[in-house]
Amino acid sequence: MTYELLTALALFAFVSSITPGPNNLMLMASGANFGFRRTIPHMLGVALGFVFMVLLVGAGLVQVFDAFPVSYTVLKVVSVAYLLWLAWKIANAAPVRAKGAEGRPMTFLQAAAFQWVNPKAWAMALTAISAYTPDQTLAAILLVGVIFGAINLPSVGSWTVLGQQMARFLTSPRRLVLFNWTMAALLVASLYPVIWPQ
After folding, report:
1. Distance CA 170, CA 141 (A)
2. Can you tell me the distance from the alpha carbon of 157 to that of 172, in angstroms, rounded to the nearest whole number?
3. Torsion 20-22-23-24 (CA) sign
4. Which end of the chain is more exposed for a tag (fewer CB within 10 A), N or C?
């Protein structure tokens, strides 16, 4: 991989990882509701789950979708339904103090599995493999995974920190409910490009 292509890949990884999307909005909500430390498994699940996804897409998973075009539609429907369900869960989350031990953030495995129904993650993985591994060699695919892993974790971590800092202003149940409903609405809004592609 040339220096220019590597630089472009790093820039793409940063911009696509730091901008708002389902992962980052959920991490911000988790940081606000549960704090940074309790959200670490969620962050690791996002970062490592996405790297695993990139590697599988690069290893030929995308060819399955090309062979069976209806699978794109199925994935889209499942993704939208699951994200709407998550938005409902975020909107109706009771304050942690009110729920006691019942309130808990997403686990590592849940966050890793979520990448497979996250439309933004699919767009990022498909673009990264098609644009930055023109020769489709194992070394190039692994390099894309390593670059994304190194850039994605601090990027998603910044959203968790942002949520944790916002918790200082979410000291009343009313403010927290408003915040959770706002995060849920933004999560639903993030589906716009999926439902109505240009």
Report:
1. 42
2. 25
3. positive
4. C
